[in-house]
DNA sequence: CACGGCTACTGTACCGGTCAAGAGACCGAA
DNA sequence: TTCGGTCTCTTGACCGGTACAGTAGCCGTG
């Protein structure tokens, strides 16, 4: 059978193509009676609805928002915190009648999603600010919102108060009386990539420096999953081991706790551990984890409403969401 | 500035629009010299590349594959097993030069992703087979592959051997000598929705029925997260409590273990627990979990290669991936 | 009865590319 | 010289819609 288009339906019913288009896309533009006849004819011919690609071209928008992720997609999906963010984003977009298109950063010059995929706007997440994909997005003049990064003035962004949260965590262990303190944070290579890692480090220092505390810093990549455990073990196995460790994430904190236990140390009796994120497992872990809460779902919602605003022609806002210290049972005053 | 199109570049260089198109999309169709001049002019004019929406219309394909998920997107992203599947799918698609578009099943009749989003093919995942979205996909005649479901003959699908795996799990506890056995499985409401739940139940029965064992079955929804814990507690708190529990998933198994411990029961000394999936946490949990392994990454890869084959005009295949029993330390012979 | 304003529908010009067929130039071989 | 073949580039149709500016008929009003 030949392809069914607006024109075939128009011919069948004896109206103009435009009227058929209106029957589907602007019901108030024609009489209910005619509309019913058109829809009936369309159904009869097996017409599904206006072709999305054609509509996208004619309207100038596609109805879907891109999510630019650079680095491993697996990492993004499998990390609990970023998965929760993605979930929130997709839920929120769905509620606004938009689909989400995942745009991996490409190595193949023949297909660069950031350049070649049709979207109305882009959320930029976990992104190396030097990635060429960002350049494509900008050249395309696509509305964009950067999440967990602060690319530059004038670009909309959604962040959480990483620095403030980290400061609270550091202050908490200081307040408990700790002075020998370790930090397990993310290794970023090359250095300036990870904005939260930078900000959190600044936050920790904001508290430690005035107290005259010089923390021992170990850095570890995300992968492999044992890397953080090994790093923490090394930190805790040395002489003069820290009595408290503040970590870049809850995942690192859990690794640190396991490392401590493997060395026969009790948490928090022998060593206090603080996480970051307040992921779902933090409350139910043993011991329940003291951590810095960020509301990842709110971050997703803010990202969507910000991109919607930018797509709607609004001024690019810079949103900053609060963080909050959640004290549970993985921290205590130092022994002795 | 006016919008830059192929035509403006063509005018500038003094060639036909088609030649400019070729410069971008089929470099072998023109001389290297002219191509360089065209690209230079394009660059000068700030042209980014052929407009994706226009190209999609003209070519008849968009370069992105849809993923139809019905039910909560959050659930899909936050569940470790389905997140791993999504990760594998998106990685694999990226490797083949395609983007992934998440298509939530819509309640808003004005925007139904399954009908209104431009994609070249669709993976159907976690889907209620009665969802109207499926009807839209079929009417659109989109290539599709159903994952973790067996919709009907003639539709391509990717499944794991749920039934065989469940049978192995059940046989394992039988072989250990257990006869009072519980099952913690998924509540599907309405009933026939969840294909893996049905298949696994069949697999358990395949082993229990011939042995004359009548398991005690409790059913629990995914949400809230405490539901499985409560259900397992109820199962284990009753008189004649089971000495072994086989579970629908690792997540349910962990909940069951926690429930057992909350009742003062040791795993596996007092009660053996078997999971399903072999998710990442299974090996490192305490005790390490006996479970049925499915290779979720392979499932993602198979889904992508199958949809690619169908999009390429191939016959719809029905793929079935193997499962395998992984015996760890959460199972032991019954006490006494 | 002329006029303005509504409703319902139509005509035409795009949107920005790709495809398939063709035309001219150049080349080596018969 | 002629012919077929290759390399380049061009021509014209088409992909399947939407935007916008009409137009025709109808109704109420001064």
TrEMBL record, chains A, B:
InterPro entries: HTH_LacI, LacI/GalR-like_sensor, Lambda_DNA-bd_dom_sf, Peripla_BP_I. It holds the Pfam family Peripla_BP_3. Coiled coil: none annotated. PROSITE patterns: HTH_LACI_2. GO terms for molecular function: DNA binding. Gene3D superfamilies: 3.40.50.2300, lambda repressor-like DNA-binding domains. SUPFAM superfamilies: lambda repressor-like DNA-binding domains, Periplasmic binding protein-like I. Residues 4-59 form the HTH lacI-type domain. Keywords: DNA-binding, Transcription, Transcription regulation. PANTHER family: LACI-RELATED TRANSCRIPTIONAL REPRESSOR (PTHR30146), TRANSCRIPTIONAL REGULATORY PROTEIN (PTHR30146:SF138). This is LacI family DNA-binding transcriptional regulator. It comes from Nocardioides caricicola. The lineage of its organism: Bacteria, Bacillati, Actinomycetota, Actinomycetes, Propionibacteriales.
């Amino acid at each position: 059978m030949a392809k069914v288009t607006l024109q075939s339906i128009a011919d069948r019913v004896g109206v103009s193509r435009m009227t058929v288009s209106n029957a589907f896309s602007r019901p108030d533009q024609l009489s209910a009676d005619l509309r019913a006849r058109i829809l009936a004819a369309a159904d009869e011919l097996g017409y599904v609805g206006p072709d999305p690609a054609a509509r996208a071209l004619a309207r100038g928008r596609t109805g879907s928002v891109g999510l630019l992720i650079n680095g491993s997609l697996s990492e993004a999906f499998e990390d609990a915190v970023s998965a929760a963010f993605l979930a929130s984003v997709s839920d929120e977009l769905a509620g606004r009648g938009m689909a989400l298109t995942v745009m991996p950063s490409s190595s193949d010059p023949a297909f660069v999603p950031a350049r070649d995929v049709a979207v109305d706007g882009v959320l930029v997440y976990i992104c190396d600010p030097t990635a060429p994909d960002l350049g494509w997005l900008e050249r395309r003049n696509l509305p964009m919102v950067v999440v967990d990064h602060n690319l530059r003035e004038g670009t909309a962004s959604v962040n959480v108060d990483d620095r403030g949260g980290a400061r609270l965590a550091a202050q908490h262990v200081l307040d408990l009386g700790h002075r020998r303190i370790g930090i397990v944070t993310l290794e970023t290579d090359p250095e300036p990539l990870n904005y939260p890692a930078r900000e959190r480090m600044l936050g920790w220092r904001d508290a430690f420096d005035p107290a005259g505390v010089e923390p021992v810093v170990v850095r570890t990549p995300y992968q492999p999953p044992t890397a953080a455990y090994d790093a923490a073990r090394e930190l805790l196995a040395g002489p003069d081991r820290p009595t408290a460790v503040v970590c870049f994430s809850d995942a690192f904190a859990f690794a640190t706790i396991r490392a401590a236990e493997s060395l026969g140390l009790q948490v928090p009796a022998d060593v206090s551990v603080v996480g970051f994120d307040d992921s779902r497992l933090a409350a139910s872990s043993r011991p329940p984890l003291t951590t810095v809460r960020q509301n990842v779902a709110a971050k997703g919602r803010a990202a969507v409403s910000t991109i919607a605003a930018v797509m709607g022609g609004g001024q690019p806002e810079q949103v900053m969401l609060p963080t909050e210290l959640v004290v549970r049972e993985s921290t205590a005053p130092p022994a002795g």
